[in-house]
Write a structure and sequence with these properties.
Elements (H helix, E strand, L loop, with lengths): L7 H11 L2 H19 L7 H12 L4 H12 L9 E8 L5 E8 L2 H14 L3 E2 L9 E10 L5 H10 L4 E3 L6 E7 L3 H10 L6 E8 L3 E2 L2 H16 L3 E6 L1 E2 L2 H8 L1
Parallel strand pairs: 8-10
Antiparallel strand pairs: 1-2, 1-3, 2-9, 4-6, 4-7, 5-6
Helix pairs in contact: 1-8, 2-3, 2-4, 8-9
Length: about 250
């Protein structure tokens, strides 16, 4: 349950993304719309929507914005926009595998922009299925670590149904890992136990990883940043693996 280097790209992503409040709001609004479109506007019968609503509240998304997003998904509000979920796969510098999730209202535009980023930054976009087999979906829950006893939290998280707890020195939060289907239940169990939930979402964990040196890591993080600057991109996952020395080198 100690630190996992393979999660470094996710931590890096979170640090970047959480600093962009408008980007976070846009992502949550799209997720609310997609969730309502797929499972209806009643969160009691739609776990994905219920989770999106809780994340929206955690980020202080205005209630009006939340309600409009849900109504857009159910068809009660027609403002001319229609979002769909798409994914892209490919390889970055050093042969690092990429799985990119996006929500778009213009697939042709998004395809062109994603392909351009791959090409411009030393990678290449592949076909669907080309790297998907290298990843598996997991739930990830972030819980602020300040004032919380590490050992006690680990035990309670496992009791709540967690698969793993990732704890890193001086990290501002614990990362609770769950099976894909258990995310919503574990989140609720932790909240019922008195813990604050910063965010809960599905992520893709690499099952096969590629270790890189500092130069290759920097090149990939530069490409990750470009993907995340794209308004349509919601998540970027890679199989990049760094040892402690490499992580220290790129943080200098």
């Amino acid at each position: 349950m100690a630190g996992h280097s393979k999660w470094a790209n996710i931590r890096h992503k979170k640090a970047k993304e959480d600093a962009k409040r408008s980007k976070v709001f846009t992502k949550i609004i799209k997720e609310l719309t997609i969730a309502a479109k797929e499972g209806g506007g009643d969160p009691t019968g739609n776990p994905r929507l219920a989770l999106a609503i809780e994340n929206a509240k955690s980020c202080n998304l205005p209630k009006d914005n939340m309600e409009r997003a849900i109504k857009r998904g159910t068809g009660e509000l027609d403002d001319g926009s229609s979002f769909e979920e798409v994914s892209f796969e490919g390889y970055g510098p050093g042969g690092i595998a990429y799985f990119i999730e996006a929500t778009t209202d213009n697939n042709n535009r998004t395809v062109g922009e994603i392909r351009h980023i791959f090409t411009k930054h030393g990678g290449n976009m592949g076909t669907n299925g080309s790297v998907a087999f290298l990843f598996e979906q997991k739930g990830m829950i972030q819980v602020p670590s300040e004032g919380i006893d590490e050992e006690e939290f680990m035990l309670q998280a496992i009791d709540a149904g967690a698969e793993d707890v990732i704890v890193e020195e001086n990290a501002p939060f614990y990362m609770v890992v769950t099976e894909r289907t258990a995310l919503f239940a574990v989140r609720n169990n932790l909240e019922a136990a008195g813990y604050t939930i910063e965010q809960a979402e599905l992520v893709r964990e690499a099952t096969t990883e590629t270790k890189v040196d500092a130069e290759t890591a920097k090149a990939n993080f530069n490409m990750i940043d470009k993907f995340e600057e794209n308004d349509d991109v919601t998540n970027v996952f890679t199989n990049l693996l760094m040892d402690d020395e490499t992580m220290e080198a790129i943080n200098q």
